[in-house]
Amino acid sequence: MWEAIIVTPFINVLLFIYTLVHNFGLAIILFTILIRLITHPLTVQQFKGTQAMQALQTDPRWIEAQKKYKDDREKLAQEQMKLYKELGINPFGSCLPTLIQFPIIIALYQSIIQTLASTPRELLSLTQHIYSTSLLNVSSLIPLNSQFLWMNLGTPERLTIFGIGVPVLAIIVVITTYLQSKLMTPPSTGAGDQGAQMAKAMNLYMPFLMGYIAFTLASGLALYFVASNVFGILQYALIGRLNWRNVLPSSWFAKSSGDAKTAVMDVKARPAAKGSQEKLPASDGRSKGGRANGKPKPALADPKPGEKARTRKERRG
Amino acid sequence: MKIPRFYFVILLVLASLSLSACTGAISASSWPGLSADQSMAYVAYQTEVRAVRIDNGTQVWQYPEKGDARKPFYAAPTLTPDGKQLIIGDYDHTLYSLNPQSNGPVGQVNWTFADAKGRWIASALVAGDTILAPNADGNLYALDLQGKLKWTFSARDALWARPALIQSTIYLPGMDHHLYALDVTSGRQIWATDLGGALLDTPAVGQSNMLYIGTLGKELLAVDAVSGKVVWRTALANGVWASPALGKDGLYVGDLSGNFYALNPADGKILWQNKPDGPITATALVTDQQVIVGTEVGSLIAYDPGGKVLWNQKINGTLYTSPVLLGDKVLVALNQADQLLVAVSLTGAQVWAFTPPK
């Protein structure tokens, strides 16, 4: 069922692209971009959901409710639902698109592995998955040209430099995964921000996990990881939400910025950002809910020592 | 509220496991390679090569003692004519010569050859004092019986099939659609013919220097071994993986749609065809009275020369490996089954089964 509905069509589209470009590396890159484009609305929706949840974290009413009902989880949950309703937040807005995308990513992964067909079982499986159409001619398709730049896409990649096999692509996977996760992580809303802590840990471990997979498995997959990471960064740049603060030194922002626009490199124009309060790492939620009735929003509870220092520095800047 | 890092580690381990599962890296990437002499069957599957007695199905030795998941074996082992060496390659680029004899350190390594850069998917051919070993890196390696490299021949793509031999010429099928004729002593190319589809198994050698071979391009072809010219080509319903089998009444071959054909070797005309219950990747076994073929779904079917089904034995497992005739028994190697080998009589009754020790 899974194979017939998702993996097989993926394999055939991938092969069709291959017939057009006659280069499997290029076919993987184009196919990754195609899938990313098709799922772009989901990415945007996921982003909006994340932003809305981020906004809730800084909403004074939510902070107040957390304090008020810290010993009554049921009441806190009711209050949370009420706020969801008021702010028009769909609680599944950020995770549902991710859940929908997850099987697509897995299928993409499987289709690339099956199409590479570097063993008899994989080739047999591939022959059973190719549609009998005039668009795909099995006899001319197999064997696929799995050579791309210095790599054989069916085997783990090593570039021999001075007699040493260097896993260049795995290193690029680590770097791009790190960059992607850092650039896409929204600014922390404070020490109690559970999501931020989780993101921080994931940002640390994920690049190495992906790098390890790229190091040990077929380089076609590593190429897919790189293409997916780079295009993911571009997608977020198009949406206008790359968080450069996470990868560039904060002094760069202190020197180069005099207003809140650089706190998050946001392409979209934001409403009036004057005064010191907006110079804090901001999110949509903060700019919307940061001032209630024209009054500054209350400071977030217990920032970490490092965050305190950064906040002071930013205020000075 | 702080989340312990421990949970992240658990989460990442689970993520790694699920990603590994997606790649299929743990499951078998091929099917058993099987060969036999008069007393012993040799089967290469996953992490071990095993020698099993053909009279009662008991294991005599295995190599290595403790299997290494990074070094799986799937190619059919090849015995040298003197019976003193068993040549087998693994998926980690190493070709081994093992001692198969019972009067020495059985199952031990005589020598290894580790210059290849690809998997050993094809089994080797021994021609006189030369071992001809095709590798997935696209090279055919010619070694002497001590494992020293004599010459190499580079094809345009991977080599997955054992060559055929006629006198001093070898016929090497390539994934690159070409059938190459090479001089066995020097590796010099005599001719190369593009047959229009990937070649995955050994050509069958017929009378009057005729070679018969199927392609993934849905054709069965007859090629003149001297000139390399295609004598006839017959379109089939799907691609052909296995070598055709030549009998006195016809040429037998199965395709990946599960059609089984009998053709006239002289002109390629289809004499009869039948569609059993699954794709066919194994070469048929031809005896005096029967043509026996295995299907992917585990059916072993015997036809008479006219195409009438004589018996159909369902075996618990999938069947991709070509059956081997051992006197009055047929030996089959299985995938996805507890039993690795099953011997059946020429009426389809099971004689013994071999389950590898855990």
Written overview of the protein:
Chain A has 317 residues and is mainly alpha-helical. Chain A has helices at 2-21, 24-38, 40-58, 60-68, 73-87, 95-116, 120-129, 138-141, 168-184, 194-216, 219-239, 250-256, 284-289, 305-316, and strands at residues 147-148, 151-152, 159-161, 164-166, 241-242, 265-266, 291-292, 295-296. Chain A contains 14 helices and 8 strands. In chain A, the strands form 4 sheets. Chain A has a two-stranded antiparallel ribbon. In chain A, helix 1 packs across helix 6, helix 4 packs antiparallel against helix 5 and helix 9 runs parallel beside helix 11. Chain B has 1 helix and 32 strands. By secondary structure, chain B is mainly beta. The N and C termini of chain B lie far apart (48 Å). Chains A and B meet through helix 6, helix 7 and helix 10 of A and helix 1 of B.
The pair of chains with the biggest contact is: A-B, 30 and 45 residues
Fraction of residues in β-strands of chain A: 5-15%
Low-pLDDT segments, ≥5 res of chain A = 259-317
Ends apart, CA distance between termini of chain A: 59 Å
The largest beta-sheet of chain B arranges its strands as 1-2-3-4
Overall radius of gyration of chain B? 21 Å
- Specify the overall morphology of chain A: globular
